[in-house]
């Protein structure tokens, strides 16, 4: 069977949360590595992309595609520390599908890497960097045999959900989206329907959600409900609130597994085999 796998390098949302209470699940912000055969796909460039870059650099030059759900800081702030971007022999394609007309992903990254916010400009990247915009809703084909479906998410300033289809299997990365209080979001439901793996924004609990309505995030209980409604195989609770301790996530993991056996809370360093 053709190899199809994923690894979590960052599982937090909003801001990195290092410390003694986040050791087991990890404190880095969003970053997911996906391997489709020899192809390397990366989703989001939060602080977790720094250790990923260190690991990739051990093998020399890389050729990869980086897909951004959106460009809030917790999802892009690791990019200036991504080692392959500074390797002249590496090739990076950076994809974004949430920006309004007139904005480009290169200009957004360039704005972040501009004084007085950051001392090193984006022009310092030595890799062959190709910044690409796409229309959300399109199906992307970054490599032969890989299809990536996209769909809009309900998040301030917009965000994109991804479904990677490869070798007859599928993985969905749906983070930074707010669920509907009545019924399912049809775009999200269609995107994840029948997926082998779904990684879903579970920042809050149902009890916490009313205090954060309009902030653009969902709950772990909605992750379970959506997985049931869409006939998902394995569901992963993701984008943990920075204040959520390891012990609190243990409790969520136990409750989620009771509601839907096989549901897991994403951990930094955790591997998924499809």
Write a structural description.
By secondary structure, the protein is an alpha/beta fold. The protein has one domain (4-266): Ribonuclease Z/Hydroxyacylglutathione hydrolase-like (Metallo-beta-lactamase, Chain A), CATH 3.60.15.10. The protein has six helices and 14 strands. The strands form two sheets. A seven-stranded mixed sheet has the order 6-5-4-3-2-1-14. α4 (186-192) links the parallel β10 (169-174) and β11 (197-201). The chain is globular. 47% of the residues are buried. The mean pLDDT is 97.
Largest sheet: 7 strands, mixed
Distance between the termini: 10 Å
What is the H/E string? EEEHEHEHEEEEEHEHEHEE
Total beta strands? 14
In terms of quaternary structure, the protein is single chain
| The CATH homology group name | Ribonuclease Z/Hydroxyacylglutathione hydrolase-like
The CATH class turns out to be Alpha Beta
Shape: globular
Structural class: alpha/beta
What fraction of residues sit in β-strands?
25-35%
Number of domains: 1
Number of helices: 6
Detail the poorly predicted runs.
none
**Rg, alpha carbons:** 18 Å
**What's the rounded overall pLDDT mean?**
97
What is the name of the CATH topology? Answer: Metallo-beta-lactamase, Chain A
Percent range of helical residues = 10-25%
Strands of the widest sheet, in order across it, are 6-5-4-3-2-1-14
CATH architecture: 4-Layer Sandwich
Which key features would you list for this structure?
Metallo-beta-lactamase, Chain A; 27% strand; seven-stranded mixed sheet; globular; 274 residues
